[in-house]
Amino acid sequence: MRTRLLELPDWLPREAWQEFLKMRRRIRKPMTEYAKKLAIARLDRLRELGENIQAVLDRSTFNDYQGLFPVPVSQNDPVGNGDWREPSCGYITA
To answer: Is residue 9 part of a domain?
Structure first.
């Protein structure tokens, strides 16, 4: 029995998704095809709630999170901020 490749929705940032999967393999928690479907469904729910999917994936990848979570909007948490990658969020840049 052949497994069909998972179709990725147009709204899903490809590079961020691939990096999230790569991180999951690196921490020795690879995702099954079923888990990938569940993760995409979770991202779709977060997207419907207004979350920035790129930020959700990047935050999980950056912090080695196994799951996908809404991005906090606290100004006291630059890694949780939806724009945490921007230098204006409190990181010192050279």
So the answer is: no
Range of 64's domain? 14-89
Residue 94 lies in a domain: no
HEC readout, the chain? CCCCCCCCCCCCCHHHHHHHHHHHHHCCCCCCHHHHHHHHHHHHHHHHCCCCHHHHHHHHHHCCCCCCCCCCCCCCCCCCCCCCCCHHHCCCCC
The number of distinct structural domains making up the chain is 1
Q: What is the pTM assigned to this prediction? A: 0.75
Tens digits of per-residue pLDDT, 77-89? 545 544 545 444 4
Residue 26 domain flag = yes
| Alpha carbon distance 5, 57 (integer Å) | 21
